[in-house]
Amino acid sequence: MSFLAESLSRIKPSSTIAATQRARNLAEQGRDVITLSTGEPDFDTPDNIRLAAIRAITQGRTRYTPTGGIPELRDAVARKFERENGLRFKREQIIVCSGGKHVISNAFMATLNPGDEVIIPAPYWVSYPELVALCNATSVVVPTFAASGLKLTAEALERHITPRTKWLVLNSPSNPSGAAYTRDELRALAEVLLRHPQVWTLCDDIYEHLVYDGFEFTTLAQVEPRLQDRVLTVNGVSKGYAMTGWRIGFAGGPAMLVKAMEMLQGQTTSAASSIAQWAAVEALNGPQDFIAPRREAFRERRDAVVARLNGCQGLSCAVPEGAFYVFPSCRGTIGKRAPGGKVIASDADFALELLNAEGVSVVHGEAFGAPGFFRISYASSMEQLMQACSRIERFCAALGR
Q1: Directed axis angle between helix 15-28 and helix 347-358, to 10°?
Q2: What CATH number is given to the structural domain containing 27?
Q3: In 3-state terms, the chain is what percent helix, strand and coil (to 5)?
Q4: What InterPro entries does UniProt report for this protein, alphabetically (predicted)?
Q5: Which of 45, 69, 190, 355 is the most buried (most CB within 10 A)?
Q6: Where are the alpha helices (DSSP H) in 91-126?
Q7: Do residue 173 and residue 102 come from a single domain?
Q8: Beta strand pairing status for 374-377 and 363-364?
Q9: Residue 180 and residue 93 share a domain
Q10: What is the enclosing helix (H) or strand (E) of 206?
């Protein structure tokens, strides 16, 4: 009999964390490594937010807080949802957790039973199916295609709904593809969901502020208010506010669900860090003028990286609407021989041989449910990104039959 829980056998380690750790290990050995596998802004947390955390410390705001978050932060989240998304929530409909992943795991653990199904469009963030598996439920992975911009269509959603479907997961803009749903695309999905009242939707909007070229961000409950009673809208301060290490995520949804999540949180982690919560109050209530220039910097990096990748032999890369990732296809390199002598048989081989040969760390597409692709995070300096692209170009040019 194994000492460890059976549930651990249902999940795998995070591929994004594993890729970053491989890069760290090589760097510790003295290799020159460029890490493009981490989903983390390279900008610093704005000064006013950091100062708010310092004030919280000096004012002694360092004790336990209510499990679902301090009232000031829950109210700030409610104002954010109304101001930016046209969604109205009462305080009891808001929960604050230790990061967006914590919000999602709370929601799944509070609702999923064995036999339940969760529809997850692929490519997907690596943690979605693992969190579903941890709850002993079933992920129904729905492939998406370039013709639909790597986004779920209404027809595909309809085909995959069964009486056991409990959740649909929508991540817009997407990690890893950067694809974002338009208002019309969300409305088409909403029409399907209205016909299936047993299906709830988890909208992961964590990259909301990072959309480009005039794209208008919208979220499902905003587009179709009739669905608001079965939508959990998830967001946080990690990406748009460069606060990944502060670990503050939040959500708005039906009070019944939020209460269940809060009860679960009270017996696991309890409240998020009090200091980080006060910093998040300042992030949401304070000046927002830093977001636009940072977004423009990301757009410039995106355009430069896409152009360079499309000049590489065997690669092709679409222009994503948002986030800070590109998701190029490496199918044109399959079957070729890497400089180290290994024949590239998969996207995982491509990523590993690129790291070995050129010291560039990316994440292979199969980890996101999309074989034949790989993910690059362009949340790095332009200089580093251009150096990485030169190495990728050199690697692709060196591939032989």
Answers
A1: 20
A2: 3.90.1150.10
A3: 45, 15, 40
A4: Aminotransferase_I/II_large, AspAT/PAT-like, NHTrfase_class1_PyrdxlP-BS, PyrdxlP-dep_Trfase, PyrdxlP-dep_Trfase_major, PyrdxlP-dep_Trfase_small
A5: 69
A6: 100-111
A7: yes
A8: antiparallel
A9: yes
A10: none
Tell me whether residue 1 is in a domain.
no
What number of residues does the chain have?
401
In whole angstroms, what is the distance from residue 157 CA to residue 144 CA?
11
Rounded distance between C-alpha atoms, residue 377 and residue 250, angstroms: 24
SS3 101: helix
pLDDT tens digits, one per residue of 287-342? 999 999 999 999 999 999 999 999 999 999 999 999 999 999 999 999 999 998 99
- Whether residue 249 contacts residue 99, with contact meaning beta carbons closer than 8 Å, is answered with yes
For residues 370 and 36, what is the distance between their CA atoms, to the nearest angstrom?
Answer: 18
| Total domains present in the chain | 2
Cα 112 to Cα 64, 265, 378, distances in angstroms: 29, 16, 35
Residue 117 CA to residue 285 CA, distance in Å, equals 38
pLDDT digits (tens, 9 = 90+) for 148-171: 999 999 999 999 999 999 999 999
Secondary structure letter of residue 46 according to DSSP: P
The identity of residue 147, as a single letter, is A
pTM: 0.95
Q: How far is CA 359 from CA 11, 125, 242, 353, 374, in A?
A: 29, 24, 26, 9, 15
Beta-bridged to residue 142, according to DSSP, are 121
Q: 122 and 370 in contact (C-beta within 8 Å)?
A: yes
